[in-house]
Amino acid sequence: MTKLSRRQFCMTGLALAGAAPLAAALPATAQQLKGGTLRVGVLSELANFDPQQLSTVNFHVMKNLYDSLIEYTPDGKPLPSLATEWTIAPDKKSVSVKLRDGVTFHSGTPFKSDAVLATLQKGSDPKRGKHVFSTMAIVKDWSAPDERTVVINFKAPAPERQILDLLQFLIPIDPKGIDTVETVPAGTGPYTLVNRAVGQSLTLKANPKYWREKQPIVQDLVFTVFSEDAAASAALESGAIDIVYNGGSRSAVRLKGAGYQVFSGPGKLVQVFRINSTRGPFRNKSFRQAFNYLVDRESMLRVGYAGMGQVVALPWAPASPAFDAAYTKTYAYDLEKAKKLLAASGLSPAEMKNWKLLVYGSEEAAVALSQIMQGTLAKVGIPIELTVLQGAEYVTAQLAGDFDATFGAIGNVQKFPSRVSTNTIYRTVQNPVLKDPHPHPAYVEAIAKVDAAAGGDAEVKAAYDNLNRVLVDEAFAVPTNSYDVGLIVASEKIGGITLDMDNLFVARTIGFK
């Protein structure tokens, strides 16, 4: 039996260095920090308040409005949160979870097992489960023996890390607010919603009934949405804000040199050239496969991210068990190989250029990568147009799959490999870009094999290898590089920065020195 018993949940604010020496000093202790109003600049308007919509644009609010069942330390060790302990059955076909007592939702509703059951039900619904739905694929059913216990049964033996990832991904929602959670948050988190001015700002206040002792430290949390990284950096330098969250790598390097604190967490993202294989020339597999060689990964990493990160040809961080460095060499930038595949496609020059590249104009790196891709395609005789959208307009188009191709980051790249299917472009069911039925059944089968590989090391490795082969063969998403997301650039008066496994913004430990 695998069991983790009750212990104090405490994550340090240690800043981990990325590819560049960005780590700052250890923060002051909570006892030394003062409250007040924390002003944070962000570069994206959030999609909605649904914790199962774990998109990058929501990273700044998730851990401030909600709590997970368990948390991970920056190095991946599980710790209690709303779950105080959990027991994985010897056959790995179920897990029993004990829930924390004395916790209430923002509405005043006591947190009990019914909330977890309602959250599981929502997550298992292909229309409502969003990013959680694919993670629920291993779940058979669930029950609540009492108000403080939930038992989750699996369809087959599941790897321990996959079970823990599920518990970490489950963020309980107040049953009373589950139907309106997109517009009204319904969590147990350290802050509650005061006001939202779409495209401009979001104001939260400290939850007076929060269950973690002496948290949150600051009483008011104000997020200001900036359309450009440069504008957010200027606001920090002028003293108009205290922190820039999820800004660009280049700005972080410059501000670090100017004396600002810069914190880089462990939860890197992978940038992916997302292809809508149901449209135009992208319906042709050879045409899509050519992009495995048309992506100038080295230039994209250097220009887009100041060299901070690593070139990759698969959607995994090096910490992932499915990571295979050989693919990066095999599918390196090679115009001659790309030309052969383009010729093999049988498409005419007019057909090859009959599409547009959607660009996130609010993100400097995305603009740079798109321009590099446009220049590379011109070299092989495919002139294309860039369609630039800003802020919420781009986010809406991307989440709805309203594009031919676009660059967009994916997360969960350091966790159990099938978690990649929580990302929009990689969903196996209810994929907003590729729709249902999924046009790449080999990929759907490969994900299922990974989920079912609970046997020996050889079976697991074979499942990972098969998934990797399918990903590059189907080529509906072409990774370019890993990079730092959720970079925190803070003034010297800020202390108590806590790093999150997924680089979500955790405000409850932050205060003023």
Structure commentary:
This protein has helices spanning 62-65, 113-123, 130-133, 160-169, 229-238, 249-257, 285-294, 297-305, 326-330, 335-344, 349-352, 364-379, 391-400, 441-452, 457-474, and strands at residues 2-4, 37-42, 70-72, 78-80, 83-88, 94-99, 139-146, 149-154, 191-197, 201-206, 220-225, 243-245, 261-263, 269-275, 310-311, 356-360, 385-389, 405-410, 477-483, 488-490, 494-495, 511-512. The protein has two domains: 2-20 and 43-185, Dipeptide-binding Protein, Domain 1 (Dipeptide-binding Protein, domain 1); 269-483, Dipeptide-binding Protein, Domain 3 (Dipeptide-binding Protein, domain 3, Roll), CATH 3.10.105.10. It has 15 helices and 22 strands. Helices cover 28% and strands 20% of the residues. The strands form five sheets. A seven-stranded mixed beta sheet has the order 9-10-11-2-12-20-13, covered by helices on one side. With 513 residues, the protein is an alpha+beta fold.
